[in-house]
Write a structure and sequence with these properties.
10 helices, four-stranded antiparallel β-sheet
């Protein structure tokens, strides 16, 4: 079974904590031994993921072949997607931020000596399902019935029930974006702003064209807005059974595929980029039980 928080929709508060390891095996063990990383704990969903190289060093049979970290910048046609790979990520989501805040602080305290927080972002939904460009986000997302087939490593492959997570923080150039007319914004996205209907005559460099899932394959997205009134953007949270699907989409957005650079990258740019392997529920349990703990996290 997968970690349940991946598919726990409808939560109003999110936090993403990325860690650099002081003790790699200890960090895996500690995050895997959180009292409830599989479903919910005190109203908070916990999803733990690990740098692929770190996880595979301890559990080589619990990850698909060839999955790697975001270890080099992706440089395209006037756009750079920076590699800011860390050793682990903990994604917390729930109905209220105060609970997430308390759980996150307890986790960080419990990891003393094992890992330090290298990147922290808090997120929240905007107008139900829109991002901070004002457009509906995730129009082509699979339904919850379809999502496991898209996101999860199949049973016949090492790491079954796990998933590859691409986590990126994109900052918006709000002034430039909001200077565009609605029609110009729709041309950039390739959809109508009011109802997200795909434009019949969408441009080749539109965001929709650059991320054509019929061409690259389906992914399951849990994107969320982040930030303040003056400094904000989108946390891209994408899950796939195959890393190459995610990477091919990034290359296309950067203009490294067969088409032009994604027009949306002229109004938003990535600040971070990391791949994490999110093991199955059972693999997390085995990791927590099997590794010698140098610390126990009690939340």
């Amino acid at each position: 079974m997968p970690q349940g928080g991946i598919f726990a929709l409808g939560t109003g508060s999110h936090a993403y904590l990325e860690f650099d390891a002081g003790d790699g095996r200890g960090l895996i063990a500690a995050l895997s031994s959180l009292r409830e990383p599989r479903t919910t704990m005190g109203g908070v969903n916990l999803v733990a993921g690990f740098r692929p190289e770190l996880w595979s060093a301890s559990f080589p049979d619990e990850i698909p072949a060839g999955v790697t970290g975001f270890n080099e910048d992706l440089v395209g046609d006037g756009v750079v997607m920076p590699a800011t790979q860390h050793d682990a990520v903990l994604w917390l989501s729930g109905s209220a931020y105060d609970v997430i805040f308390d759980v996150a602080r307890a986790v960080i305290a419990g990891l003393h000596g094992l890992g330090t927080v290298a990147e922290e972002t808090s997120s929240w939904p905007y107008q139900h399902d829109r991002d901070l460009t004002g457009f509906i986000d995730g129009t082509e997302n699979p339904t919850l019935m379809e999502a496991p087939e898209v996101a999860l490593v199949p049973e016949s492959v090492p790491g079954a029930g796990g998933t590859v997570l691409l986590l990126q923080k994109w900052v918006h150039d709000a002034a430039a974006w909001e200077s565009l007319s609605v029609a110009e914004q729709e041309r950039v996205i390739g959809r109508a702003k009011s109802d997200s209907e795909e434009l019949v005559d969408k441009a080749d460099d539109s965001h929709v064209a650059a991320n054509d899932q019929d061409r690259f394959g389906k992914i399951f997205r849990r994107n969320m807005p982040y930030g303040t009134v003056t400094d904000h953007g989108t946390m891209f949270v994408g899950f796939s059974a195959e890393q190459r699907t995610l990477h091919a989409m990034l290359e296309s957005m950067a203009g490294l595929g067969s088409g032009p650079r994604d027009a949306l990258t002229r109004y938003t740019r990535p600040l971070t980029g990391a791949y994490y392997f999110v093991p199955s529920n059972d693999a997390v349990r085995r990791a927590g039980e099997g590794l010698a703990l140098s610390a126990v996290v009690n939340v």
